[in-house]
Each structure stands twice: as structure tokens, then as C-alpha cells.
Amino acid sequence: MKAKINVVLILLFFQFSIVLPQSKQIEAVKQESSITYQLTHLLHEIESTSKEAYCKIDFDLSKKEIKNVFVQVDVTTFNSGNSNRDSHAMEVIDALSFPDSRFTSSSITQKGDSLKVYGKLTFHGITQDIVISAATKWTNNKLVVNGNFDISLTAFKVERPSLLFIPCKDILKFTLDQVFNLM
Question: Using one digit for the tens of pLDDT, what is the confidence trace for 96-117?
Fold first, then answer.
């Protein structure tokens, strides 16, 4: 009798584990991931990249859906290849007072491999709603997410840098390339 009860309990456990969502948290692989911003001035464009962002997703394995996203990056880790320019950028955004930038999703719309990730970005001590457009690519053991979004420097109370008394454009364009190991 006791053996029959154990068998029934084991069968119930397996049945419920199949029905419950197969969700897990996955961190991006830093060595294979990056965040890049592009700043445009009348005379030239600047790109600066960080490979030090911490990105975590809640992922439903059974449905192949991303449920939540969290990203945090130390703004001093962006590198444009010009240390003087990078130092000036850190002054402009007051990196000593606001060293981290964070994004937390509030909802995600997924259609096929296309995503719209809605959430809050905190940058320069100010939090604003943004939308990230992204695409997913699946390989055997990896999920690659490529996305982009724009922010207004003035909306985040950042004074636009100038060169020859000409300020840069107000829009800062971001590109995200995040790689997740699914195994």
C-alpha cells in the first residue's frame, strides 16, 4: 500500500513539473556581449563600447520567451579608443556621482524573433520609460539578442558636449548585443 502511494506521488510530481513553466534566470556571457553608444556631431561620429554590462533575463524554456530583463553597466567601462574623449564624457555625465546605468523591464511583447522590451532606464540619476526594439537568434546552445534604443541627452539632464562651439546632436543611440548560454 505504501509503495502504491509513493508511485502515485511520483507520478503527480512529474505531471505537475511538465505543466509548470520551465523558467530560469540566465546571465549574458560578458566576453561575447556588448553595449555601444553612438554620439553624432556635425564633424564626426563617436562610438564607445562596454563589454562589462551585467545582463540577466528570466527565460521560459518551454515557450522560448524572455519574461524579464535587467541590465546594469558601470558608465566608466565605455571605451571609444580615445582616453581623453572618454575622460571628458565621464565629466559630462558626472560619472563620479552617477556611476551606474540600469534598465529594468516592465513588459515584453514577442512576435516570432522580434521583441519590444518596455521598461525604465536610470541614467545620470534620472529614470525614464524607454522601449528597446530587439531581435533574437537561436543556435543550438545559445540565444543572441540584438537590440537598439535612443535617448535624449537633455531629457536625462546631460549637457550636450560641444566641439568648436557646436553642440552634438541630442540623441544618443545605443546598440545591445547580448549572448546567453542556454545549457
Answer: 999 999 999 999 999 999 999 9
Contact 99, 74 (CB under 8 A): yes
User: 21-38: per-residue pLDDT in tens?
Assistant: 578 899 999 999 999 999
* CA 18 – CA 38 distance, rounded (Å): 45
Contacts 24+ apart (CB under 8 A), 2-6: none
Neighbouring C-alpha atoms within 13 Å toward the C-beta of 162: 5
Rounded to two decimals, the pTM is 0.83
CA separation, residue 124 to residues 57, 88, 105 (Å): 24, 15, 18
Give the 3-state secondary structure of residue 101. Answer: strand
Q: Write b or e for each residue in 24-50: b if 16 or more Cβ atoms lie within 10 A of its Cβ, otherwise e.
A: eebebeeeebbbbbbbebeeeebebbb
* Run of H or E including 44: none
What is 21-181's CATH superfamily?
Lipid/polyisoprenoid-binding, YceI-like (2.40.128.110)
> Amino acid identity of 39?
L
CA dist., res. 93 & res. 75, Å (int): 9
